[in-house]
Sequence to fold (672 residues):
Amino acid sequence: MSELIVDQLAVKVGGSQILSGVSLTVPGGEVHAVMGPNGAGKSTLSNAIMGRSGYEVTGGTITMDGQDMLALDTFERAQAGLFYVMQAPTEVPGVSMFDMLTASLSAQGTASTDLAATLSAEAAAIGFDVALLERSLNVDLSGGEKKRSETIQMSVLAPKVAIIDELDSGLDVDGLRTVAQRVEKLTNDGLGVLVITHFPRLLHELNADRVHVLAQGKIVTSGGPELAIELEQTGYGAYVEEETPEPKSGGLDDLFSM
Amino acid sequence: MNTPFSPERAAELGDAERRGSAAQLAATSGLPDTSSEAWRYSPVSDLNLDELRVVTGAPPAPPDAPQYVTEAIDSLQAAATVSVIDGFVVAVELADGWVAKGLSVESAAVKLAEPEEGPNLFDHLHAAFAPDGLVIKVPAEVEITDPIVIRSHLSEGAAGFTALKVHASAGSRVTVFEYQSSESGGLVVPMTQFHVEQAAKVNHVVIQDLATDSWQVGRVTSRVEEHATLSSAMIAFGGKYARIRTDSDLAGRGATGELVGAYFCDGDQIIDYRTFQQHIAPDTLSDLLFKGTVDDESGSVYTGMIHIHPDGAGSNAFQTNRNIKLGDEAWAWSVPNLEIENNEVRCSHASTVSPVDPDQRFYLHSRGVPPAVADRLIVAGFFEEALRRVSIPAAAQIARTLIAEKLDVRLEQP
Fold:
């Protein structure tokens, strides 16, 4: 079984130290959640794991199955088995999902002759309009369609570990359930999931095995699924220093602004 | 200037008096002044007329076009196919069915309207050295559903002066597709005129696939009448310096001018477009989209002018030019302009010059697409917005192949 290990990761963005020693391990087949208030560094963690430029790793290591991820470019990390479901997937005009996945699979030497059929089946399984497969990536898609599109790509590329950033944004309750069921199926087949969210309800759908709270650039506490339930009731107040209050995080405002 | 373009050589084409005086004017006019706005950024002063070969008799048939071009053209079931070499119309094949409908496609003398800003060297040379051009006439209310296909070729080192005149009578419809190629070197001066009468529609698609050491300095002028539409696509890949100036007169109420451009230059090429959209009548629409990519040390020029005349109330004008700069040394000048003399209009213009979008790159990389392949996909995808507006799908397909060829060259570089 695969394993992603983040150890003492420190990351600067634009000269500011955002993460200062994040450690967590995501074994295959498990769902780990990183929760925390806005501005805690959750998206910095996912971007740093994927090696996005502008996210400067100043300390610590990221390894997957013993392989040093920090030594690899983004596309090599993806080819090694990392996948990143973005909070707001980028629009790529004129490039279809089919073209992109064909390029990705052929670069890995695993070009599939029936990719079109696979895509159609995956799309149908999670309620994504098959006609959208031919369209430009993420262009003119609703928030929910974008998340479905990301899920289809994840299913086709079959990664070892997926980082899923705010999966719920744009999905309605039914949509979230459908997508979560697809993720669960992948998890049963051995996929490790690192889900990034500030929204505890998502974890009911994804059945998180472990919950980590990220605040002030560090994991401040970890626990089982009961920690998410606790956060749902109490918010992040206990983990946030007084000088940086985030009154809206995890509160009702978020529920109704979706 | 003492050049091969003498009155004596011009006289070999007949009509010695008229051609001779045009050649005289050419000899005294000199190359255009690059300090003037219309020629800013142009390397035209590097043009060496002495190296060019004057052509006064019809040359032999051109070499075959690349297979994908031939196949695309063959797939079109043309209403007429025309072959032009060094400006000479050497073959016209017209389908019988369309002859019966009154379509006329023939070689004839083309009298060009004098440019408003006054003729320059290239206008004089054209007047002196252009043989008979191609004249297309579509009778009123006749819809020519098959395209007219023109293959225009420039032989090695030649100076070619081509003329095309399209007259679409009221209520008619016609589509003209031009594929331009060259052997190597030389200068081609294509002059094109459209007259689109009331409620007529003309589609025009040009693919410029000249050798990268050939020169092109051309002009397209059009007059679009009431409720008529001229839809043009200009797609350019070749030329050392390739310049087209378009003057589009939306002269009748409700006239529409659609103009799409796509260009990709590399090496030390310069591709240069100057567009002038004149909203002379009320309720006219101009919709312009130019997309370009510059690589290596190449450059592009786009300057556009939308002019809403005092009688242009109710007009809409959209002008967009977007460029991807692939090479560090590459450059793109993009200068959209508006001149508005009536305030009851809707106008927009946008212009960008930027490298490949880093977020798009990251997205593809995060899916395991290697960087060079990702850039290739993004750049090819960037052109799609323009290519989807090309009225002849087979022509858009040729353009995709040519874009892929340029990107393949890049991908193979270390």
Notes: The CA atoms of residues 56 and 87 of chain A lie 20 Å apart. The mean pLDDT of chain A is 89. Chain A has nine helices and twelve strands. The first helix of chain A runs from residue 42 to 50.
